[in-house]
From TrEMBL:
InterPro entries with a match to the protein in the record: Integrase_cat-core, MLVIN_C, RNaseH-like_sf, RNaseH_domain, RNaseH_sf
A Pfam family: MLVIN_C
Domain (Integrase catalytic): residue spans on this chain: 327-480
Domain RNase H type-1 residues, every copy: 59-207
SUPFAM superfamilies per UniProt: Ribonuclease H-like
Gene Ontology biological-process annotations: DNA integration
Gene3D superfamilies linked: 1.10.340.70, 2.30.30.850, Ribonuclease H-like superfamily/Ribonuclease H
Keywords in alphabetical order: Endonuclease, Hydrolase, Nuclease, Nucleotidyltransferase, RNA-directed DNA polymerase, Transferase
Lineage: Eukaryota, Metazoa, Chordata, Craniata, Vertebrata
Coiled-coil stretches: none
Protein name: Uncharacterized protein
The keyword Kinase is assigned to this record: no
Length: 624
């Protein structure tokens, strides 16, 4: 009865409910018919049986076989195996080690298949303690076969290849019965002894046997059509040792069949849908049984097309040359600014850092007022007009008042790409250098960082740079800083004329500035991405959470530059934080709030904070 109830519940077009409005006695009226129209039990058995000779009860004659599969972790390593035992003499018929990635259910199915093959043209009974294997041959197998090997949700079966082989192997025995028994029982009955022996042998095979290389994730070879090749492709197949058999199939000397890219893509797509393996794993698994020229490129296209893998996997991107800035021909022509927070000393809590000739000004607040005051009272009067300033997008730099002041002075202020700290790398490195130098001075002098700041700036300015071999001080003033009383200057002062002194300093400065141009990186004149407006991309999340996708989207691209792209939902994003282009989404998401009279739909999944309210559902639209 449980079997028939399972069949009814698993049917797509039928639901099992209790109706309390009907009285069963209403159906017990009238005279019974003379002849039965049909036998209900016979019809049910006929429609649910995978094979006509398959029985659930043990046969009175023939072979008796106990099968079992094992998959368990030993010392942190998973081991899988199977075994088939003769129930009459309690001897092992066959056992072996299986790939470690196989589950216990897969091992049980494989053991059942081997037992069916052993009973070809014979009568016999097979005992198994797996309800899953028992259900496949007695209940689910027939339903899945009629559905086209799809489950109730319309998705492909996990063990599709192995289930097909079992359904075919059921036709091999003359008479066959597959019986379910409880596993891990204690007793001396033949069923208990046989099942326990099969369990023991399966575990032993998993631990000590030689692993067998199996392929159960690709479609059955019988379902593959004979691939067609062009003359150019046939020449390539001959070069790698391929030969055409009488059946028309091309095979390698080791027996593997050669496929064209069309059939190979079908196999790889089916395999990737079930496993979500990467490119190399798909190729390795495919090449165990087949061969195909250019298989790596096909596998890469399959993995890149999978939106699930794209949203979760890390981005594989070659390290490209970072974009540089316009060459600076004079000091403070182009500067970079940033605020860094330090432990509060009296009323000083922040440090406004300006580089590359480092200037650091203590401030009480990280505000636009402090930035404009420092520029107007210290930097511009001391070093002249600045041509360009770049910074991050903090509110103290994007203030409308500050930007109006900068615009009136004719200064160009550029803001960095969001979520790309490398753009502020110059000033961020200087922040670290300042903090490290201040820490050493505080330890040595026991003074506050405000008191140690002038000496810290002196140390940084007079330290020779590793890429140039000279210090910023020498590049600024044209002569080295005398740090000890034992050092002598390389120039003469008192005895030379003013004109000669000025010419010497000018020549020294010119040579140093030419030397300083060498390590500067010029701006890029090429793109570091291949995304164009109108295409769809994924965007890396700013807050990573465990067991959640690290990439959001897809989002449609509106604008692009050499190093960044812009979307409606995320604004400007650096190329290192995008992945794509990806396929245009076909899903629609409800974005309107509950109670709205207007229903708003949005294409794509979007991000968690933008895309879906908690109550929304995802809908698939089949038409435009």
């Amino acid at each position: 009865m449980l079997k028939y109830e399972t069949i009814l519940i698993d049917s797509d077009d039928m639901t099992l409910e209790v109706n309390r409005s009907l009285n069963p006695a209403q159906f017990l009226y009238g005279e019974p018919a003379d002849n039965l129209i049909h036998n209900c039990l016979e019809i049910i058995q006929y429609q649910t049986k995978v094979w006509g000779d398959l029985e659930e009860q043990a046969l009175s004659e023939g072979e008796i076989i106990y099968v079992d599969g094992s998959s368990r972790c030993l010392q942190g390593k998973r081991m899988s195996g199977y075994a088939a035992v003769d129930g009459k003499n309690m001897q092992t018929i066959e056992k072996g080690k299986l790939p470690s990635i196989w589950s216990a259910q897969t091992c049980e199915l494989y053991a059942l298949k081997k037992a069916l093959e052993y009973l070809a043209h014979k009568k016999g009974t097979i005992y198994t303690d797996s309800r899953y294997a028992f259900g496949v041959v007695h209940t689910f197998g027939k339903i899945w076969e009629e559905r086209g090997l799809l489950n109730s949700r319309g998705k492909g079966l996990v063990h599709e290849g192995l289930i097909l082989e079992i359904l075919e192997a059921l036709k091999l025995p003359e008479e066959i019965a597959i019986v379910h028994i409880k596993g891990h029982q204690k007793g001396v009955t033949p069923e208990i002894r046989g099942n326990n022996l099969a369990d023991k042998e399966a575990k032993d095979a998993a631990e000590n046997g030689a692993e067998r290389v199996m392929l159960i994730l690709t479609p059955n070879e019988k379902k593959l059509e004979i691939p067609k090749f062009s003359e150019a492709e046939k020449n390539e197949l001959n070069k790698i040792g391929g030969e055409q058999a009488e059946s028309g199939k091309w095979k390698l000397p080791d027996g593997r069949q050669l496929l064209n890219k069309i059939l190979a893509r079908k196999i790889l797509e089916d395999m990737h849908q079930k496993t979500h393996w990467g490119t190399q794993a798909l190729c390795d698994h495919f090449l165990r049984n087949y061969g195909c020229i250019g298989i790596f490129g096909v596998a890469k296209q399959v993995t890149e097309k999978c939106i699930t893998c794209q949203r979760i996997n890390k981005k594989v991107m070659r390290k490209t040359t970072l974009e540089g800035r316009e060459l600076a021909l004079r000091p403070f022509q182009s500067i970079q600014v940033d605020f860094t927070e330090l432990p509060q000393v009296q009323r000083w809590k922040y440090l406004l850092v300006i580089t590359h000739w480092v200037e650091a000004v203590p401030t009480t607040k990280a505000s636009a007022n402090m930035v404009s005051k420092t520029l107007l009272e210290q930097i511009i009067p001391r070093y002249g007009m600045v041509n360009r300033i770049d910074s991050d997008r903090g509110t103290h730099f994007t203030s409308k008042v500050l930007q109006q002041i900068i615009q009136s002075l004719g200064i160009k202020w550029e803001l960095h790409t969001p979520w790309h700290p490398q753009s502020s790398g110059r000033v961020e490195r200087m922040n670290q250098t300042l903090k490290r130098t201040l820490t050493k001075l505080i330890v040595e002098t026991q003074m506050s960082w405000v008191q140690c700041l002038p000496l810290a700036l002196l140390r940084i300015r007079t330290q020779p740079r590793s890429d140039l071999g000279v210090s910023p001080y020498e590049m600024m003033f044209g002569l080295p800083f005398l740090t000890t009383q034992h050092e002598n200057a390389t120039y003469e002062v008192g005895e030379m004329s003013v004109k000669r002194y000025v010419n010497t300093i000018a020549k020294t400065l010119e040579n140093l500035r030419l030397k300083g141009i060498i390590p500067q990186t010029t701006p890029l004149d090429f793109k570091i991405h291949n995304v164009h407006p109108g295409e769809w991309v994924l965007v890396k999340t700013w807050k990573e959470q465990s067991l959640t996708p690290q990439w959001e989207g897809p989002f449609q691209v509106l604008l692009t530059t050499e190093a960044a792209i812009r979307t409606k939902e995320r604004g400007w994003i650096h190329a290192s934080r995008i992945k794509g282009p990806v396929d245009e989404p076909k899903d629609w998401t409800i974005t309107s709030e509950p109670g709205d009279t207007k229903l708003t739909l949005k294409r794509g999944l979007g991000g968690n904070e933008l895309g879906r309210p908690k109550w929304s559902k995802k809908h698939t639209q089949d038409h435009t």
